[in-house]
Design brief:
72 residues; 4 helices; globular; 78% helix; mainly alpha
């Protein structure tokens, strides 16, 4: 079970962990919130999750382009 958890944490977008860090809230609680509300509302939090993930990727891209690395 631990290997499965590590597998998904490495390949996930990191939205729940970023929210947990910002809000000082346990990451597992945020993940469970997304899972339970997805079942209750038939998947609408998935749209919010993907939107937040894309915003994080775009923000990371712009930060990287503003601070170019001299040696790759």
């Amino acid at each position: 079970m631990e290997k499965l958890k590590i597998f998904f944490e490495d390949r996930a977008f990191g939205v729940c962990s970023k929210l947990g860090e910002k809000l000082n809230f346990p990451i597992d609680g945020i993940r469970l919130f997304f899972i339970y509300t997805s079942f209750i509302t038939l998947g609408s939090p998935i749209i919010v999750y993907v939107t937040m993930a894309m915003l994080m990727k775009v923000r990371k891209f712009f930060r990287k382009s503003n601070n170019p690395v001299l040696f790759d």
